[in-house]
Amino acid sequence: MPKVLPVAAIAVASSLLLTGCFASGATGAADSAVSGDKRIRVAMMQPPRSALSPLSDDAFKLSRWSTAETLVKLDAEGNARPALAEKWRRTTRLSWEFTIRNGVRFHDGTPLTAAAVARSLTAAATASPKPRILDGVGLTVEARGDTVTVSTAEADPLVPERMSSPQLSVLAAKAYRGKTVNPVGAGTGAFVLTKVNGTSSATLDRNEHYWGGAAKAPGIDVTFVPDSTARAAALRSGEADIVESVPVSQASLLDEKQITEVPMPRTNTLYLNTSKGAFKDASLRAAARRAVDAQVLVDGVYEGRADVAEGLLGPALPWAKERKGRTAATAPGKPDGASITIGTFTDRAELPEVAATLQQQLQKAGFEVKLEVREYANIETDALAGTFDAFVLSRATVLDSGDPAAYLYSDFASDGSFNIAQLSDPAVDKALRKAAGTPSGDARRAAVLAAETAVLNTDAAIPMLHERVIQGDAAHVVDSAKDPRERELVTVDTHIK
């Protein structure tokens, strides 16, 4: 059977022609290896959407390649631990002081200073749009000696955890030119990003002067392969060493020793447009909820490699089992042929099939259903603008701060930056504000679950299943990261034996 790793263990530990896609025998600035002399060839799922700007979701690529770093990182339990900041403390109700690590240099040779940290964080805080980790957060930063003071407009108990988001990576001054942020040669991590070929590939070389010790691999050669069949074929043919997000349909074609199922805090959800169209009617949203049979999706589309969702938060968060669930269910109405369009994207191979199955289920319930399927880069803008009546999305629920409150706010607050459901509900907003302001611990978890319940009560989102992302590693890969938060992939210890 394929390896299935528990979350705690994990945290510790377009067809394309494949020939010529991956660098063969490529060498970077470091020709001598610390442990092994072979570069690591990685097939990534999604191409960069914003030229690898850390202020976008591309930041997670920079993090997974160990090239851009943040002030803190998260441990297996989601607690903040030192990274570019050696320590921190809360100085006032609104302010936190971070002491910057000594002896760190950016890839261009300039030193990491408190002023450099302040510049990067200020660029994120003043960006338009802001990184979603800063949704609802008025953040200002001031450098003082070897410390930075991070202040928020309202008391925020999660400032340290927020600082772990890859979207708040600290880069050298050269990266910032007007509104553009270019990470090439500007990070502090174990690998130097030396070249980016648009949306096709990227090259990284070992940072021989990395503050955390030189990496074991001499470099990383990344190719972006949106086509899922091509990604899996790259592993089978030996063209890739590590393959991100192997689709369920391809898993059975690979050697079981090459597969690791990673239980992810990722939920496959049907978002319903609450502002216009058929699903402005709460009773029709309830009718859609009743029509969706998630077990069919798990058994059929995911071949049993997923878990039926009981809520928005899945088994990667064990405490989510304490939820009350929906407490104010609306009575389902009669669709009577109501016309709806469901949108989704091809980048995750299962989603078009999920949408097709939902089309059948909703048609059986009395809806008239059309599908619109594109690549994510070509559909995101329309999804956020409320173009579709419904949208199928695979969504990471603790991606940014390690805390699901940020995800819930982003997706369901009236002013959330990723509010595909176009939801504007006072009860939801109130619950989200309470969750965001509650200190870490049991009380915060209870507040988060109450906010989840408030969202579920609106039927603005129908959680269907929780995914187990499948990662493929060639037999000669040593110590690649299997990270449920999708922040790590190639680390200082990863190499080819």
UniProtKB/TrEMBL annotation:
InterPro entries: Peptide/Ni-bd, SBP_5, SBP_5_dom
PROSITE patterns listed in its UniProt record: PROKAR_LIPOPROTEIN
Alphabetical UniProt keywords: Signal
Superkingdom of source: Bacteria
Residue span(s) of domain Solute-binding protein family: 81-417
Signal sequence annotation: 1-29
Protein name (database record): ABC transporter substrate-binding protein
